Amino acid sequence: MSKIIGCIDGSPLAGSVCDYSAWLAHRLGLPVTLLHVLERSLYPTSHDTSGAIGLGSREHLLEELASLDEQRARLARSHGEDLLAAGLERLKQKGVATPPGTLQRHDYLADTLRELEPEMGVLVIGKRGEQSGARGIGSHLETVVRMLHKPILVCASDFIEPKRFLVAYDGSEATHQGLLRVAKSMLLSGLKGEILHVGESTPTRTAQLEAAADLLRSCGSDVVTQIVSGHPEDLIPDRVHASQADLLVMGAYSHSAARRFLLGSQTSHMLRHTSITTLILRA
Fold first, then answer.
1. Does residue 168 sit in helix, strand or coil?
2. Region 49-59: what's the mean pLDDT?
């Protein structure tokens, strides 16, 4: 059975990840598993000095460093267990029906998520991680978005129950298939939204937008469409603000020049310059 996997760490957004995971659980009827990963690069398991020659008096220093690393890893593991326990309690307070689960791994985040992808319905992850500071996006986020082929909800701030959404529509297969899955899931049922395309207005594009709008209307969303010309990097954040949307929906990493704003650094630009939670769709 598919599940919602919420990635938590010691960042201020961990509570938001739990809250949005609970919201998704109510909307989709899926169970939640909270995941905490001790990054192997930050917490190595051992120091191999078997190939060192002539260590002499330095050997005891290496042993002390190894002992300190082991102590750091134990403390981090214990801290992670506390975070998971607090997350479980938060989910219970949100009324999550199916008892949520927890999972702690000592590995690389990307490798762990790749392993869990077959059982993943939606990934929920903070825009910034524990090591990312107060601004920008987390160092792992772009890698995770490129790697996975499941919807990813990127939490940008404290939880706000979505009432209005904005779809940044580029006409890509990822966006179309993603919207089809969203419509079938009833995730946006009852919400008001806008499907925005930045580019040339043509009969074909207008028809595509209306078809996308009809998909969401079929699940009970109140949707309008709009086509504007200009630069997506500027217009989409402006439109998010003007429409008072509290959820941005967009496809990920198109490789067409016509959809360059979803490629590489431009995706990062969108995540950096919008302050609301973003649902990233994959084909």
1. strand
2. 56
Distance of CA 116 to the CA centre of its chain: 15
Cβ atoms of residues 232 and 198 within 8 Å? yes
Q: What is the pLDDT of residues 254-267, one digit of tens each?
A: 544 444 444 445 56
- Residue 140 is classified by DSSP as T
Supply angle C-alpha 22, 27, 32, rounded to 5. Answer: 40
The mean pLDDT of 150-178, rounded to a whole number, is 90
> Is residue 58 helix, strand or coil?
helix
Quote the DSSP letter at residue 260: G
Instruction: Based on DSSP, count helices (H) and strands (E) in the chain, helices before strands.
Output: 8, 10
Closest CA to 102 of 21, 33, 6, 2: 33
pLDDT bracket for residue 46 (50, 70, 90): low
Our CA dihedral for 82, 89, 102, 185, rounded to 10 degrees, sits at -140
d(CA 212, CA 268): 25
Torsion of CA 20, 21, 27, 32, to 10 degrees: -170
